[in-house]
Design brief:
With 281 residues, the chain is α+β, with helices and mostly antiparallel strands. Helix content is 37%, strand content 20%. The chain is built from 10 helices and 9 strands. Strands 1, 2, 3, 4, 5, 6 and 7 form a 7-stranded mixed beta sheet that branches. It is elongated and about 110 Å long.
Length: 281
């Protein structure tokens, strides 16, 4: 979040919640998709169906739903079942509620300010329509109409999205490339690096001695770059003329063995210094 975003103050609007119907019990009904589609097309003043509750002493109440002919005829070409049974289950371990809200009509005046918009939002009211006490699942009766509907849905689902079509002319399109040029170049370069020609052993040793005259310690990567030899072949030669340091401060570095070094030691320097002093005396 930027500094400018932090400086923006979002107004907090309090909304009223009407709890007058909080004690009312309502049903939560799950209907098939074809019923929901019909009800979405139906106008608000149309009767969409009838609910029947049959009570028998000592037995559980039977709930059924019959769709109205007006809803069924909204799309005459599509036949759907009209008779349904609702399986009832009581909600005991959950607290579910139904809420609605009323949005006030917008002001007709063209000019508005932040204060007026805030007051308009503040007049929006929320309602609790009731508490869900029962869940019902609507399922159709397995008659011929439902079987035809199910068969048609299975047939539509089995139709492939893509179809193979014969063509009578050449279609100009991008053809797949077997291998890209940069991939071929990369593999050839790695192959060439992996199969470096081995130089004569004495020539490689001369290159190593020349390098160690400049610096006392090298890692294996630098020596490979200097000699341009395969790493396995180079290590064989290094083991003969060099020592591999396993401890700090030069860990993982190579240096010449003592018999190949030509560095002046401190004792030698002291002797040379003492000899020069005696000569001066």
């Amino acid at each position: 979040m930027s500094k400018d975003d932090k400086d923006i103050k979002i107004p907090i609007v309090d909304k009223e919640l009407d709890l007058s119907n909080a004690g009312r019990g309502v049903w939560l009904v799950k209907v098939p998709k074809y019923i929901a589609q019909k009800w979405e097309k139906a106008p608000s003043n149309m009767d969409v169906g009838k609910l029947r509750i049959s009570k028998t002493p000592g037995q559980k109440a039977q709930v059924s739903l019959s769709l109205s002919q007006a809803v069924v005829k909204l799309d005459p070409q599509e036949e759907i079942p009209t008779e349904h049974i609702l399986d009832v289950s009581v909600v005991t371990k959950q607290t579910l509620g139904v809420f609605s809200h009323m949005v006030p009509p917008e002001s007709s005046s063209g000019s508005s300010s932040k204060e007026s918009s805030a007051s308009t939002q503040g007049s929006e009211k929320l309602y609790m329509e009731g508490r869900i006490v029962q869940k019902l699942e609507c399922r159709p009766i397995a008659d011929n109409c439902y079987m035809k509907l199910k068969l048609e849905s299975i047939r539509k689902a089995s139709v492939p999205v893509r179809k193979v079509q014969p063509i009578d002319k050449i279609v100009q399109n991008f053809k797949p490339v077997k291998d890209h040029a940069h991939n071929i170049e990369y593999r050839e370069r790695k192959k060439a690096e992996g199969k470096k020609a081995r130089d004569d052993k004495n020539a490689v040793m001369d290159m190593l001695f020349l390098a160690f005259e400049k610096h006392q310690y090298y890692n294996i990567k630098d020596l490979v770059k200097i000699t341009k030899q395969p790493i396995g072949y180079l290590k064989e030669i290094l083991k003969e003329v060099c020592d591999y340091n396993m401890k700090n401060p030069h860990k993982n570095m190579w240096e010449l063995k003592k018999e190949y070094r030509h560095y002046k030691t401190d004792d030698k320097k002291d002797e040379d210094k003492a000899g020069s002093d005696s000569d001066s005396d």
